[in-house]
C-alpha cells in the first residue's frame, strides 16, 4: 500500500499565524502600549506627525520587544509623506475585509448579529463608566484600546479578550501584506496573554472562511459618534 503525505494538515499548519511572544507588563506599561497603539491605528490625519514624538517617548520604557515594534512603525511614519501615509491607511483598512479595524465584524460580519454586537460594545463602555461619543462605531479597535488604556475597569480587558480572534486575524492579514501596521498590532498582541488552542482554531476558521456575509442595514448605529467618561467635562473628549 502506498503511503500518502497528509498534505491538508501541512497546508493548515502553513496557514496558521505565527504566535507572538506575550510579555508580562506592569499596569502602566500595558496602558502606555495600548494608548500608543490606539493613536497609531487611528487615521493619520492632521496633527498625526506632531504626535509621533510624544508617542515615541511614551513607549521608550516598554520592554524591548514591544518598544521595537513601535519603533518600526514610527520610523516608517516619519519617512512617509502625509498624503502617502493616508493613502496606505485607506488601502489597508478600508478595502481589505481581513484588515478590518471593527472587532465585531470578524464574528458577526454584515449580518443582523452585528447590530446586537455593537449594542453590547456600548453597554460595555457604560459598564466601565464611560459614554461612547465618537464618529466611529463602538467596536473600532483604536477606541477599545483607548478605553483599556484610560479606564480602571476590567471591562475593557474583557472586551479585548472576547474579540481576540479578530485581533489575531487582523495581525495575520497585516503580516501577510507586509504592512507596517502589523508591527503595531503585534505590539498589542504581545501585551495580551497567549492564545489557547481553542482560540487558535477559531482564528484559523476565520482566516479560511472570513466573516459572515449576510448584508443588512446598520444605519441606526452608523452615526454613533472618540468617547467621554460618563459625566466628564468637555476636555475629556478624545481628539
Automatic annotation (TrEMBL):
<dbReference type="InterPro" id="IPR003765">
    <property type="entry name" value="NO3_reductase_chaperone_NarJ"/>
</dbReference>
<dbReference type="InterPro" id="IPR020945">
    <property type="entry name" value="DMSO/NO3_reduct_chaperone"/>
</dbReference>
<dbReference type="GO" id="GO:0051082">
    <property type="term" value="F:unfolded protein binding"/>
</dbReference>
<dbReference type="GO" id="GO:0016530">
    <property type="term" value="F:metallochaperone activity"/>
</dbReference>
<dbReference type="Pfam" id="PF02613">
    <property type="entry name" value="Nitrate_red_del"/>
</dbReference>
<protein>
    <submittedName>
        <fullName>Nitrate reductase delta subunit</fullName>
    </submittedName>
</protein>
<dbReference type="InterPro" id="IPR036411">
    <property type="entry name" value="TorD-like_sf"/>
</dbReference>
<dbReference type="GO" id="GO:0051131">
    <property type="term" value="P:chaperone-mediated protein complex assembly"/>
</dbReference>
<keyword id="KW-0534">Nitrate assimilation</keyword>
<dbReference type="GO" id="GO:0042128">
    <property type="term" value="P:nitrate assimilation"/>
</dbReference>
